[in-house]
């Protein structure tokens, strides 16, 4: 019996070719991934909605909100107002404006000529006034109410309602 020797394939050459092929595939795969990352493009559409800002209100004063100044003919006094912010974000008060005639309280019906005027502070306010979300603050506008000497005597001791509008910004 004769034995036929099995041809031997050199493993050193195959291993080297496999390693080279693997390294080449890794480099090509990495380059392809990098190219895809930098060259990727897409199209589509999206949408978003914007919330509506609720009105910041000027409220009647609450107990404990009292002025430290009195209005007399020929003089000035502070105007107090309470501003409420019902929004879920803070707002900045930008300015104030008169919003109608000044009237006397019901206990002084003879006060027909009040002689009272409102002079708002210059805009924009400095320093800015910020009203935190869902809160109210008491604002004092120093010397913003003036009373002329034409005011009638029946206005003595009256409390005056000064209609004011605020401008706020988010």
Keywords:
single chain, 170 residues, alpha+beta, four-stranded antiparallel β-sheet, three-stranded antiparallel β-sheet, 1 helix, 29% strand
Description:
The chain has one helix and nine strands. Strands 1-2-7-5 form a four-stranded antiparallel sheet, with no helix packed on it. It has a three-stranded antiparallel sheet with strand order 6-3-9, with no helix packed on it. A two-stranded antiparallel ribbon has the order 4-8. The model has no long low-confidence stretch (mean pLDDT about 80). With about 170 residues, the chain is an alpha+beta fold.
Sheet/helix structural class: alpha+beta
Strand tally is 9
User: How do the SSEs run, as a string of H and E?
Assistant: HEEEEEEEEE
Which percent range fits the helix content? 10-25%
Task: Please state the average pLDDT score.
Answer: 79
Radius of gyration: 40 Å
Tell me the fraction of residues in β-strands, as a range: 25-35%
Ranges with pLDDT <50 over ≥5 residues? none
**What does the main sheet amount to?**
4 strands, antiparallel
Strand order of the largest sheet: 1-2-7-5
How many helix segments?
A: 1
Shape: elongated
Distance between the termini: 102 Å
